[in-house]
Amino acid sequence: MLITCPYCGPRDVIEFTYQGDGNRERPQPASQDLDAWNAYVYDRLNPAGDHNEIWQHSGGCRAHLRVVRNTLTHEISSVAFTRGHHKVAARHKAEGKI
Amino acid sequence: MSPRRTDAGGRIDRLRTIRFTFDGAAYTGHAGDTLASALLANGVTLFGRSFKYHRPRGVLTSGVEEPNALVTVLRGEVREPNIAATMVEIYDGLTAVSQNRFPSLAWDISAANQLGGKLLSAGFYYKTFMGPAIGPLKSTRFWMFCEHFIRRAAGLGRAGTAADTARYERMNAFCDVLVVGSGPAGLMAARAAADQGARVILSELEPRFGGSANWSAETIDGMPGADWAARAAGQLEGYDNVRLLPRTTVWGYYDGNTLAALERVTDHKERPGKGEPRHRYWIIRAKSVVLATGSFERPLVFPGNDRPGVMLAHAAERYANEYGVLPGHRIALFTNNDSAYRSALALKKAGAAIVAIVDVRPELSSEMRELADEAEAKSLAGHAVVATEGGKALSGIKVQRFDMVNGALAGDQRSIQADCLLMSGGWSPTIHLASQAGAKAEWNAARQAFLPPKPTQQWPTRRWIGAGAFTGSFSTAEAIAEGRAAGLSAAGGTGTPAALPVVEAAPGDPDPAPVFEIRADGKSFVDFQHDVTAEDVRLAHREGFISVEHLKRYTTLGMATDQGKSSNIPGLAIMAEALGKPIPEVGTTRFRPPFSAVSIGSLAAERFGDLKAERLTPMHDWHVANGATMYSAGLWYRPMIYGHPGETIEQAYVREARATRESAGIVDVSTLGKIAVQGPDAAGFLDRVYTNMFSTLAVGKARYGLMLREDGLAFDDGTTWRLGEQDFLMTTTTANAGKVMQHLEYFLDVIWPELKVHVTSVTDQWAGAAIGGPKARAILAACITGTAVDNAALPFMGIVHGKISGVPVMICRLSFSGEMAFEVYSGAGYGTHVWEALIDAGKPFGLVAYGLEALGTMRIEKGHVTGAEIDGRTTARDLHLDWMLSKKKPFIGSAMMDREGLIAPSRLELVGLISLDNQPLSGGAHIVEALDQANPHDSIGHITACCYSPALGKYIALALVKDGKARRGTRAHISDPLRNRFGPVEIVSNHFFDPDGSRMHG
Question: The FAD/NAD(P)-binding domain covers which part of the protein (chain B) (predicted)?
């Protein structure tokens, strides 16, 4: 499986660490809603099909990526930074680095 | 001249004689022979003994699917078992031996197994050995007694024990088009793609490119198929953009069109060339894949179909045409399709007499009748072979009238003398790689075969294009057309090239009659290697193992080293008949990697031995030079003790700890995780990460911090130093350095991307030495310049900068040992320099270097927690760290930490234990309220760490005990049956020594 890191380009999956279901929403830090916390900490979606996942390029730039992966085919339809690295990536792209 | 070698023909080099041995007997063959063809040429018919019944077996096929003729190849001390003789190219000095026979291949004691055949039917082992004991001969215990004998009798070759001295290599390759298989379809595909300018890899598992063209009697473009193939391969060699990989089996198909292949580089050589590995493991990433893997001929299932001398029809044709070997002089054929007639004619032309062609079909086409006439063969349409005769070689067959509509036999049996019987039960496309690629095979009723699925059903990440017999197009003309189309399409070409090569071939209908089995008396084998008979399949059906997966496991059909390449479809067909269902409704098992056996050495390649990375601290060499016994802690190596001659480990650590408490000790703490946390929001971030406050920490001060996981359990602890308003240095435990880093990165990247904080691992940038004890400050004062270290300049948890021996250092006054102690950090490159300066300055004060054991002893005396207590199950309260849980702010884990189960009174809490019998306590031992052999008590906890305490003069331990705080002052017992240690203990506070901290505060 190849994941195309927006910084580093296409890299083999062994360079990445799976960081879990990307659909989980963390309650506000001060929230006392235990059900919401419970859902965040323990509930995971397990769809047969496209899944919104978090991966870390731990063997590379260490950025966390939001990856849409089809769990049936391992097809990856999108990869994006979880935070605003897009400007750097756009510059790298413009400079032909990736 | 060898008895079975033809006078001329074949692709062997008759001028080169090769000498080899099989079971100790010397034989000769020619360059280009396989072990199978060379032995056949020498008149050898017996190659091995079958798995269960020890029946004599010959060679069934001519290729990778061979189930019978498995041998062990010896190279010096190294033995490689279970190699198909059909895949071993002979070389001078080749030494091969047969398998699964005792005392010899010809006289095998266990062959008596076949006399009691009913005993060893499917499920024999489960029925006999597994389950409850009913009588003396039925139980799992009985199996354990018999296993040794059974394993010896039933089995394959014996693996060697000598280390494999061969070298293996791993190679990554990239290409536009990977073509798997180099028959006419594969050659055409590679050429078409290469002409488009694509980077092409063409792999072929045999030594010669050409596939069926190497042995068929067909002509292509007016020349023999083999010559055409050799010319085509030669032309491809001239392309810069083509890589040819002979002797290379593509065995795995993975995501993103990543394929795994095994190249057997030197197995066919007497000795490897300079720098050549034995095997090369290829990982090929291909933009497009062309599968041109051909097809396998299927055996027919009838009594005695496993006798040496019974062979697949095309295999015999191949032995004759490619190797110049006749598998027999009087040959009979048994078929349900037209392809066998081609084989008959080829063998006739090579010099054999064709005594009969037995065909299950009542009516033959005029073309087939003409081919039979041309082969001068007696044509027996509407007949079937019902028995074979002979011992270790075939002497004759029995045939009977056969009605293929109802499978009935009629009329008298007739005997026909023959020394070889060729069978053809139709052809199955080699769809293994397509199956691995994820799509389901489709049953084609006309071809009586599973065909690869249509492109629309392929996985998006594993797309391939098929060509030739792989797709069920069994004629060479179709293969050539499909091959070129596939190559063009794979390379993205659209050109309309010149005319296709012209094929002249014998006529033939690709569709066989739907007959798989002739039911008559005797053992009819489906899976030759695992000795699974048609009756075993029906037995499985009668006993309810009707799904394909159950059938496979119950009978072991298809589970041998050949993975059912020749047996899956006949087995399925027999089960379908028993169920009264059509074959596609019974289903088929999915093929998984590898396609054929892969050497473990090739997968490891150059990565063998100890694969663990070694992390050494900057002072490592000093420790070793000064007598340290090194201890592996995760990836790190740390001094355990600096032992004196004659000292035990306990004596050494007790001496080191005592000296530290009496004068001073120094320990290497470079392994602690160190993370620079920097940025405008750094302080706020730390408030969220730690349970206690860090935004209130003054610059130049450090604070002990505790982190929880999201679920509220304790995660890690350490000190964090505020070096500047926006600049913190976090330390973590050695073991959790990586985890904490990832934790921080995750929260900054995913949860709080708005925070302006950057985290950097600086573990390897700093060397750290902790110096502690009553004399520590005096030692430091003796060697530091640029700063004072008295209470005013350097209070507890204060940080100063200075120089030691000219090197800038950063010093924080904090304590793990409980003594007044200082952590001295310098650049990693100066670690040893600073360490030695401290050692020198400490000499007059009696400074000792101490290791992990003394460190552990002093922390147990102080009751500090480490990973042994923060074990992923304990909470801050369990560890009496609830004073660190801030109520002024939320932090990671704060919402979840007060859940019912995490504050229950019955939780395990940290306590201290004192041994009351003055004997050592043992780590991991359980704690019980009373020792009572007759009525054992439940465990109320366990020991996490233990030592002899020089400060207390007692054996002590830290333990997690149910409701531990309330039990302080009471007695309990440790119970450690594994190490036979039982004894009384007193439960006390975990703070054994200097509980108010007066020593470290000074």
Answer: 176-442
CATH number at residue A62: 3.30.2270.10
Distance CA(B2)–CA(B719), nearest Å, equals: 84
What pLDDT is recorded for position B1? 45
Chain A touched by B785 (CB under 8 Å): no
Nearest chain A alpha carbon to B897: A34
Kindly state the helix (H) or strand (E) to which residue B810 belongs, with its residue range. Answer: strand B807-812
Does A23 contact B at CB distance below 8 Å?
no
Structure tokens at B574: 């027999």
pLDDT at B415 over 80: yes
CATH 3.30.1360.120 intervals, chain B: 616-670+765-858
- pLDDT for the residue numbered A91: 67
Binned at pLDDT 50, 70 and 90, residue B129 comes out as low
**B461 interfaces chain A, CB cutoff of 8 Å:** yes
CB contact under 8 A, B749 and A64: yes
Contact yes or no for B461 and A19 at CB 8 A = no
CB contact under 8 Å between B746 and A64, yes or no, is yes
CATH no. of B616-670+765-858: 3.30.1360.120
Strand B908-915 vs strand B981-988: parallel, antiparallel, or unpaired?
antiparallel
Considering only residues B425 and B549, tell me which one the structure prediction assigns the higher pLDDT: B425
Q: What angle separates helix B548-555 from helix B568-579, to the nearest 10 degrees?
A: 120
Tell me how close the Cα of B746 comes to any Cα of chain A, in angstroms.
7
CB distance A75–B461 less than 8 Å? yes
Pick one of 3.10.20.440, 3.30.160.20, 3.40.50.300, 1.10.3720.10 as the CATH number of B1-122+130-156: 3.10.20.440
Using pLDDT thresholds of 50, 70 and 90, give the confidence band for residue B513: very high
Q: Looking at the predicted complex, does its ipTM rise above 0.95? A: no
> Which tokens sit at B515?
């007959």
Digit-coded pLDDT (tens) for A3-62: 999 999 999 999 999 999 999 999 999 999 999 999 999 999 999 999 999 999 999 999
- Residues of chain B with Cβ-Cβ distance to A73 below 8 Å are 438, 459-461
pLDDT of residue B1002: 73
User: How far is B336 from B514, CA to CA, in rounded Å?
Assistant: 8
A2 in contact with chain B, both atoms CB, cutoff 8 A: yes
Is A83 in the B-facing interface, judged by CB distances under 8 Å?
yes
Q: CA of A58: which chain B residue's CA is closest?
A: B742
| Nearest of B300, B317, B374, B365 to residue B508 by alpha carbon | B365
CA atoms of B570 and B590, how far apart (whole Å) = 16
B448: left (phi over 0), alpha (psi -120 to 50) or beta: left
Share of chain B above pLDDT 90, in %: 83
Residues of chain B contacting residue A31, judged by C-beta atoms under 8 Å apart: 895
Q: Which residues form the domain of A67?
A: 2-94
Number of domains in chain A: 1
